[in-house]
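Standup notes, structure subgroup. Blocker cleared on the FE2/S2 (inorganic) cluster input:
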Amino acid sequence: MKQTISFVLNGESVQVEIEPHLTLLQLIREKLGLTGTKEGCGMGECGACTVLVDGRAINSCLFPAMEVEGRTVTTIEGLADSQGDLHPIQKAFIENGGVQCGFCTPGMVLSAKALLDENPSPTEEEIRNSISGNLCRCTGYVQIVQAIKAASGQ
Ligand code: FES
Ligand code: FES
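Run returned:
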């Protein structure tokens, strides 16, 4: 039986009827049409599906959609400002060559955002830890770490 949940998605209140077994990834991509969040492994191992729930980076492929009731969800579509200007972390990824195929990028950027919101001047080790659940097959991570450092002003 479908149930109605209410939450805040990228700053907007959303009320949606869902099947109780739906994952947050299915809700975001299939019901709400926000395809910036990617599906990779579907098993909690690649981080392509990372979004923020109450500011914390989670794998949306494993997260029950029902659990966002009353909470705040941020996807990659929510990072640009109201003029459409990219978030400083997104700009830093572009400027530092941290984007190649781009498949891992939305999840990487959101993991970086969760880190920098909590720890604005992370060490390289803290940066590497924060993206340890996000796999990238293209960049070798050096440019990504550099991008997150640059976004933190280092
Ligand atoms: S698709 Fe969710 S961790 Fe890989
Ligand atoms: S840029 Fe291709 S997987 Fe990371």
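Discussed briefly. The pocket of FE2/S2 (inorganic) cluster (ligand 1) is lined by residues 39-42, 44-49, 59, 61 (CB under 6 Å).
Next: hand off to the docking folks.
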